[in-house]
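During the reporting period the student researcher (J.K.) took over the structure-prediction task from the postdoctoral fellow and processed the backlog of single-chain submissions. One of the processed entries is reproduced below for the supervisory committee.
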Amino acid sequence: MATRSFLSSTQWEQAQEVLTPPLMTPDGDVRQVFCFSAENFSGWLSARLEELFKSSPEWEKCHPIILGSWARGELSPKSDIDVLFCGDEEKVKLFVDKANEQGLKLRYRMPHNPSDWTENVEAFDILALLKARPWTPEGAQKLFEQQKKIWSKKNYYRRILLKAVKEERKNRAKRFDSITNYLEPNIKFGPGGLRDLEQGLQIYELFAEKFTHPGHALNVLHYYRNYFLNIRQKLHLEGHGDILSNAVQFDLAKWMGFKTHKDFMRDLQRGLSRVHFYSDWIVEVAESSEKELKKLEQFEFKKFEDLSLALHKNSSVLVQKKVRENLDSLLPDAKVKSLAKRRGQVLESILDIKATDEFLVSIFRSRLIDKLVPEIRRLVGYVQHDQYHRFTADSHIMQACREVKRIYKKSSQLGPLKSLHQKLTKEDWRILSWSCLYHDLAKGLESGDHHSDLGVTIVERDFKSYGFSKSFTDEVKWMVKNHLEISQAAFRKNPKDPKVWQDLRDKGVEGARLYRLALFTAIDIRATNPEAWNEWKAKLLRDLVVSLESKKAQDYFDFQTLRLRKKLQLSSEVIEELGPVLLDSLAIKDLVNDLKKAEHAESSLAPLVYKTRKGEVWIRFHEKKDRKGLLSDYVGQLYSLGLGIRHASIHTLSKVGVYDWFQVSTTRNIQQLTKILENTQVQSKNIPAVKFESIQLVSADEKEWVISFKGPDQSGLLASAAKSLSELGVSIKSARVHTWGRQVDDIFTVKSLGSEPQELIANLRQKYQL
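J.K. obtained the following structure tokens:
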């Protein structure tokens, strides 16, 4: 963690003038180190520190040896000040106390053993001694003796230092979730930042004899050393730390000379990626044997397919670097298009669901992917500034391709959604893998059209050139176009809403496509931001799949199919009005045929008695024209026939009229009931006085209210409640009778009146003197 600055307020103002923006806008391709003011500014800061040190009379007797960023010429206003003192201990204590009084916070130490400064210190402290700078002749002599001792045991210390660097990089990678880059990178400690860069250069110097052609890598590291240091110095001067937060990016982009903050972040992310790669490569070269390096140096590629084969056998950074060096000769841009079918075959092997994760990552890190799928080049470093997408666009695509392999190998990672794993065929997994690669390739191209629609065009073009079948191409195109649909339905809509079902069905979400899309949604979330995937989202996705495959949904779709086939004039919303209980009981075909008769009938239909496969008895009443009290008459008539009502599905439908169904309990057979009902005219009946114990509002929304009438079992309960609702101008959508022993609970679902539902409840309670 950086300390506060050692600069005074006056010096702080001067620093603003000393630190200047780059002479030209950085692009990472023209690597002119001189265009940055980083080294000059570091020198100016160093001079200010020297003034502070020399203002104390004890400084010379302390024999300070400066370490760390100060010694390397990489000072920033909030850098830690690392010093080793090899002088008189009492003088050192006086000096440090005065420095603290002046607000100068030092990280200092004195040798545990004056004869051996490496005793009881960390490996990185030994490494720092090799770059240290003395201030006094006596200090210089002592430092030289220690450096000579270290260098005499060069191989011993190199092994220790290399091991320490690898361990530190590993721990830091975990800390910074460093598969690629953060949305808001840490310019010092993040992947590809100054710490990686510094370690790469130091390890190179320790193992210089192992490198045969390091020129390009060193050129990249030296360039970005100045680039990133310039950014860090500006961040500190603006009062920030080492994190390049979203708010800071706008001003910094302008200062660096970029047109937009997105251009700046894209260029920066490319730089972080390059530094991360080349510093990894240097560490791996240092660790490799001379034999391994010589063998790799002599290895030759004859055709571009050899590049992926080499990475398949050995995915190390060493081979990745070798592949990078041969990309342009084996896959020149001018020939990429003509080699489309061969590129498709190579991609097929890479995306094979059983191919290793290491192989896939090496294809991206070696940049072979840029030649195989040129669209990806545009996405390198492309940051989506929405605080949700953790990775750059190209890295997100790589993550998605990794995630599909992970869940194939370990379905338990899907949580409640893992049951879908077994429903996918080998071809489904192939479609999923290719969809992961292509789903976001059109990001950044949007100009009115959504990236999903533009992505379909890219799939069509590329798959045709690869020679893929039309059926496979169509399935991947469909996945790319609809890859966001399931997440919208599962997380933002009601998964049990028939309108949601219909919308998804209209887009083709059913069968294998449903399973693939649900799994892809999980993959996409995990590849976007691992922390955004959780048990709750997995459950919501599973619930949507279960809902879409439920009998209720199937009945709904069957009804809609028959409705259109029979050319019913009823709207698709009629299914909601009929209710799930009726649809679950009756055969959909019989229901649609009856509705067809009612719609085309010139007069009212005779009552229909219907027995379901489960043995339930339903009675349907139909009247072309509604009238007040008709529901009460129906209920009264059923009561007078000794029929107990278990459920009522009550409707007045456009072009149909009154269309009410009652599920009844009876000992009579169908023929008897039909004959009795045909010979009995519906008429008003006297409803006996009843007593309810409670009338309550169960639930209410803008569409419907649910009201409960509870009381002891007695004649006319349902009829009386229905009549009371009718008299108050309430339209009844459905009714359900619940009986527990001697207690009855009549549940009515009614259309919302638009006013406060409690007003209706109060009127009903007043009527029944509750």
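The committee noted the following: The chain is about 55% helix and 10% strand.
J.K. will present the remaining backlog at the next meeting.
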